[in-house]
Amino acid sequence: MRREGIAGRDLMARIETHAAIGAIEGGGVCRIALTDADRQGRDQLVRWMRELGLEVRVDRLGNIFGIRAGTTDAAPVMTGSHIDTVATGGRYDGNYGVMAGLEVIRWLDARQRRTLRPIVVAAFTNEEGVRFMPDMMGSLVHAGGYPLDAALDTTGTDGARLGDELARIGYAGDMECGSIVPHAFVELHIEQGPVLEAEGLAIGAVQDLQGISWQELSIAGQSNHAGTTPMRMRHDAGYCAAAVAVFVRELAKRYGGSQVATVGAIGLHPNLINVIAARATLTVDLRNTDEALLKQAEAELDAFLRALEQQEGVAIEARRLARFEPVKFDERLVRRIEASAHARGLPVRRMTSGAGHDAQMMARICPAAMVFVPSVRGISHNPKEHTAPADLLQGANVLLDVLLALADEPPRGP
Amino acid sequence: MRREGIAGRDLMARIETHAAIGAIEGGGVCRIALTDADRQGRDQLVRWMRELGLEVRVDRLGNIFGIRAGTTDAAPVMTGSHIDTVATGGRYDGNYGVMAGLEVIRWLDARQRRTLRPIVVAAFTNEEGVRFMPDMMGSLVHAGGYPLDAALDTTGTDGARLGDELARIGYAGDMECGSIVPHAFVELHIEQGPVLEAEGLAIGAVQDLQGISWQELSIAGQSNHAGTTPMRMRHDAGYCAAAVAVFVRELAKRYGGSQVATVGAIGLHPNLINVIAARATLTVDLRNTDEALLKQAEAELDAFLRALEQQEGVAIEARRLARFEPVKFDERLVRRIEASAHARGLPVRRMTSGAGHDAQMMARICPAAMVFVPSVRGISHNPKEHTAPADLLQGANVLLDVLLALADEPPRGP
After folding, report:
1. Are B264 and A276 in contact (CB < 8 Å)?
2. What pLDDT does B224 receive?
3. Residue B48 distance to chain A (closest CA, Å)
């Protein structure tokens, strides 16, 4: 297998140049979907696509596709991610995958290397879902999972209508959403978690993506004096919130595997040192790659809450905030990623994505998988988000290998 | 023993009249120490004392004493409490004990009943400690536990100097603090807890008062993505806060007796559903009537925190906010209270005060005890604070019995 690869300086220069658009203190980026900064980022991306001779198409939701023709009209191989960020974003989340896609094109052009299938570099609209919900919106609509009209009618946190903002920044395209159904989709992304770095690995071959269960619990107890109320007569909403947090931690430990559980937000009322809390609200985030286990975790939590209500004399209401089933990526693609890493002598492991990505939406309509590279200390959605240039380059080269192999696959597959 | 007693309508009329001063919506009272409302409350109290023929003396901290002469100059028997309230106070906390003291005087006068010892009805300055800290200030200074000058120099939450406010409302008296050292002090008060009501009892003979240990804990962990960070790699400050709350609850259950433990306030940062908390702050309120057990509880908590630091890879800092040793009330007085309740056919139990009261300060200089009456649902520091008129009357009659017996004790005691 080839060992040649993309030029690291070109990749880094492209990432640096793009990170200057919407740059914030500390080296981060604020380029929230459909703002002026997003427009500037899109304009730069489209310029680069045109410089590379790609045919640029924009769909009605503003998803951007840069298409390099193949020697046949067979279904294209697609890569890409998103260029929007959270308010205090880093420079790699999303952008890395798009920039690396452009460098794959440059590498092919420099060698006048044609492929049987077209290669498409995509940048999906509004992956982060900061201003407009839901997140992963562009790829979700592309995959037919959400109606275009509903997406365009979304009202933002600032009161703006998504369709209006899209027109304002000049990215309301005319291509019908979902027109391009790829032969395969491969997304290159930073891990946004600590596993690869901690295990000294270069490449993650992402084989699945966790299902997510988000709930907000509201606990109604009885406010009383912390000194004069005997333990047996308490209806302590604060204790109940704490008991839930400890329960889900123990549940995750007991399940093992990919199960994670987090209580990230707790609020007590009246939140005073000498008053038993009358009310508590807390969030519960449960994730597992196995839908049956995730359902079992939800059921165990529910049973625990019912028992807690009885035992403590409180009332607990659960409100579902989000629920996504786990996604299995394409086994053949995962093996291709592993094969590339092995050929390049890069330590690799199969892994699970704990975060949501455009690839999970694309997996609805074509074989899909992801390549992860290490994130220093797992930090993301933060200007401190960092991946070493050598790691970024290795990931881009794995993407190159995989795209090349896929792009030469004949129409009926091997 | 006598079964005759105070007239309920007189007691209730006095409480009603006084509760109109500083009245707030919902039937409560806002009469924060050394405000204009406090002055009006004091003026009404002094008028009533004078109408009852009491000698009114005001000390340099504004503590008010209404003195009914005895047939000898032996040390007086003192009762009373406070008439200041919290911002959203009820009408019984403190005021009830002072008003009942006046009704005892009226009862004696109506029968021209003289006592060997003088009887003093006291209203101590700033028991609540809302505007000026520390709380229970008037009785604390009276008992020699805090310097008068420091008390007068206290700066309030509104920036006012206590001594200036005292002069402004006309209650900077000239009697030296602590001049009156009683033969005994008996304070009648609502329970402010749910025990008497829950057990169907009329009278609590308060034999001790809990020691208090208040700490604020600050936990420093590591913020990370709730989906991508495996359980074993977490430094979750939110989980640690919850684990502390569950630990102290289990500690209190294990200790039993008077031990209570409360985590009333929790704050997480950044407090988001999908982010492991980087930091947590929480308060821990531990109380026990036994100083050795309270110390043991503190030591166990400390050991738990050290183990949690190791296990979770977090740093925990504990800041002491308050620490009071338990108070034992006078056994002979407690038995007198029980005897009165028995003679009147009132169901009674010995109990512990979980809250602080002026009597705990007076216990430093003379035999002291307290009489509790039921609080509906244990609610206090709230306009909803309520005790049935019949219960208020029964408590006042027990106070009458105990004061009468004490006031006729010869100088050397029985």
Report:
1. yes
2. 87
3. 32
Q: Which residues contact A112 (CB under 8 A, 6 or more apart)?
A: none
Our count of domains for chain B comes to 2
**B342 in contact with chain A, both atoms CB, cutoff 8 A:** no
Beta strands in B176-289 (DSSP E): 184-190, 203-209, 211-220, 224-225, 260-262, 266-269, 275-276, 279-288
Residue A239, domain extent: 211-324
Using a CB-CB cut-off of 8 Å, the residues of chain B touching A259 are 231
Name chain B contacts of A263, Cβ cutoff 8 Å.
Answer: 238-239, 242
A185 and A71 in one domain? yes
- Are A105 and A50 contained in the same domain? yes
In angstroms, rounded to a whole number, what is the distance separating the alpha carbons of residues B182 and B118?
A: 9
A296 in contact with chain B, both atoms CB, cutoff 8 A = no
Q: A312, A221 in Cβ contact below 8 A?
A: yes
Please indicate, yes or no, whether residues A143 and A231 belong to a single structural domain of this protein. Answer: no
Residue A319: what pLDDT?
A: 96
**Beta bridge pairs of residue B370:** B187, B206
- Shared domain check, A152 and A263: no
Strand pairing class (B275-276; B224-225): antiparallel
Give the CATH number, domain containing residue B63.
Answer: 3.40.630.10
Using the beta-carbon criterion (under 8 Å), do B210 and A227 form an inter-chain contact? yes
pLDDT over 70 at A1, yes or no: no
CA atoms of A389 and B336, how far apart (whole Å): 83
Q: Has residue A82 got a pLDDT over 60?
A: yes
Chain A hits for B360, Cβ within 8 Å? none
> Do A216 and A205 share a structural domain?
no
Are B226 and B270 found together in one domain?
yes
- Assigned domain for B272 exists: yes
| B87 interfacial to chain A (CB closer than 8 Å) | no
Chain B residue at shortest CA distance from A214: B273
Q: Which of A358, A341, A348 is nearest to A397 (CA)?
A: A341
Q: B146-155: per-residue pLDDT in tens? A: 999 999 999 9
Quick one: tokens of A353?
A: 């994505």
A218 and A114 in a common domain? no
Look at residue A4 and give its three-state secondary structure.
Answer: coil
| Together in a domain, A81 and A121 | yes
Of B324, B342, B362, which closes a domain?
A: B324
pTM for the complete prediction? 0.85
Verify whether the Cβ–Cβ distance A233 to B378 is below 8 Å.
yes
